[in-house]
Amino acid sequence: MFNMMEFEVNTVINKPINIVVDALMNPDNFVHWQTDLEKFEVIERTPGEVGSIAHLHYSQKGRSYIMEDKMIYCEPGKKYVSQVSGDVITAKVETTLQSRGDKTKINLKWSGKGKIFILKILLPFMKGKMIKQSKKELDAFKHLIETRGSNFSETLINSNH
User: Fold this and answer.
1) What residues form DSSP beta bridges with 6?
2) What is the tens place of the pLDDT at every residue in 101-149?
3) Mean pLDDT of the chain
4) What residue segments make up the domains of the chain, in order of their start?
5) What is the CATH number of domain 5-156?
6) What is the pTM of this model?
7) What angle, 0 to 180 degrees and rounded to 10, lies between the N-to-C axes of helices 17-25 and 127-148?
8) Residue 44 falls in which region: left (phi positive, over 0), alpha (psi -120 to 50) or beta
9) Alpha-carbon gap, residue 119 to 89, rounded angstroms
10) What is the pLDDT at residue 118?
């Protein structure tokens, strides 16, 4: 049996926690900072609510695939835990938020494993690349919140006029 692969990334966002939570819970924002994500489709319940389910539509190097994201634990404004699964991988993603006055520390912990044999073997070798990508996404999220607030799409539309 192959072990789970785990890693953590974090950053401090120069905005209060309520703005960070609003940005994180807005499903329309995900496509702006998640690599290769084309659509966040809410299937069941409100995003951020325990039992909520979303389909994440990705396109990577011309190949489309869908991952299911199910919220399995929620402590509003503090901690969100999702089970993300697809044909080849399953992972638990824990997002923890800590208020630091007018700033917010966000920590992302990823633990997952491959479902297919080749990925079970290769996943540990992909750890560095996955950490780098997750850090890049978190930095993009930070930049968007700091420059656009909690609704990335609305600000984009308004800035075009």
Assistant:
1) 111
2) 999 999 999 999 999 988 888 888 899 999 999 999 999 999 999 999 9
3) 92
4) 5-156
5) 3.30.530.20
6) 0.89
7) 110
8) beta
9) 8
10) 87
